[in-house]
Amino acid sequence: MGIFDKIKDHFEKADFSVSPQKKLKTISKDFKESFGLSLVFYKGNIIAEESLTLAALNNKTSQNIKTKTNEELIIRASMKVGVVENLFLETFGVTVQIKDKSAKSLIDNKLTLGEALRKL
Questions:
Q1: What is residue 39's predicted lDDT score, i.e. its pLDDT?
Q2: Biggest CA-to-CA distance, the chain
Q3: Contact between residue 110 and residue 80 where contact means Cβ atoms under 8 Å apart
Q4: Residue-level pLDDT at 11
Q5: Is the distance from CB of 42 to CB of 48 less than 8 angstroms?
């Protein structure tokens, strides 16, 4: 990855945020528009219903995560896939997987979101 790609990733899509009041389908759609990758939410081992909000999904998981209902997560293209997935778990108590645009293949956790998009 070139130095210009790294710099660009630090500033590109820097305003993408996730709030617990948003529906999963809206978050996934916005994520795909911003990063060209799929964001898939899980309830246990099953893909979660898209009509749920992030807060409602958190209430349905077995994890006991103490989050503020107004807590927001900011995601940037310079962040590694594994870090983003862990932030969702730590912040909202939900499991997510980042996949390619068609949502068929998992993205390597060591890649940044920007690198993953350029490799597709």
A1: 97
A2: 43
A3: yes
A4: 53
A5: yes
3-state percent breakdown (helix, strand, coil) of the chain, nearest 5? 40, 20, 40
Nearest Cα to 115, choosing from 57, 45, 44, 37?
Answer: 37
Kindly report, residue by residue over 79-90, the tens digit of the pLDDT. 999 999 999 988
Reference 85, options 116, 56, 60, 59; nearest CA is: 116
Q: Each residue of 5-19: b (16+ CB within 10 Å) or e?
A: eeeebeebbeebebe
In the numeric block, which tokens belong to residue 90?
């730590």
Instruction: List pLDDT tens digits, range 25-36.
Output: 999 999 999 999
Q: Are 13 and 84 in contact (CB under 8 A)?
A: no
Please report the sign of the dihedral spanned by the C-alpha atoms of residue 81, residue 96, residue 94, residue 56.
Answer: positive
| Residue 77: closest CA among 25, 3, 16, 12 | 12
Q: Count CA atoms closer than 13 A to 37's CA, side-chain side.
A: 30
